[in-house]
């Protein structure tokens, strides 16, 4: 079966600016195992580099509104690269807290098991963001 979208929402006891820092401050992201390699400008390269120095993902920044929205693509490792998904994060303030909404639009076939594993990966990653943001 094909699954095309993963939607997750998580309430974080921190303001959007603090949550944004978890994405953009290398000193903080390294606590999650790496850092984003980008200049945070739409149209430019975007990727995740692990603390081991390896690049694990590559894509392109599609839209940035600091502390409000981040949208980027992910590419496969082929030459020329093919877009495999688009990921959007929305940082919504709710009474001194942040509702972090994450959405992945998947552009390739996945089995039910792959989809379940990807969804669980999102839960893990978003909880790591929550833990770090709430400590700032």
From TrEMBL:
CDD domains: SRPBCC_CalC_Aha1-like (cd07814). Residues 14-133 form the Activator of Hsp90 ATPase homologue 1/2-like C-terminal domain. InterPro entries: ASHA1/2-like_C, START-like_dom_sf. Pfam families: AHSA1 (PF08327). It comes from the Bacteria. Belongs to the AHA1 family. This is SRPBCC family protein. It comes from Dyadobacter pollutisoli.
